[in-house]
Specification:
2 helices, Type II toxin-antitoxin system RelE/ParE family toxin, RelE/ParE_toxin_dom_sf
Length: 49
């Protein structure tokens, strides 16, 4: 089976950064945790057949 590639649009990356900045205004810790969790889920979805 051919390996899959996850392609993330530049606008999606900017959206993720904006979400992190917004959450970090009240909690830098939870902003980092949220982004780590979300990116792990995105990677998992990309791997699922």
């Amino acid at each position: 089976m051919k390996p899959k590639r996850l392609i993330v649009a530049p606008s999606a990356i900017e959206d993720l950064r904006n979400m992190r900045r917004y959450i970090a205004e009240s909690s830098p810790h939870y902003a980092q945790e949220f982004l780590a969790d979300l990116t792990a889920k995105i990677a998992w979805i990309a791997e699922v057949d």
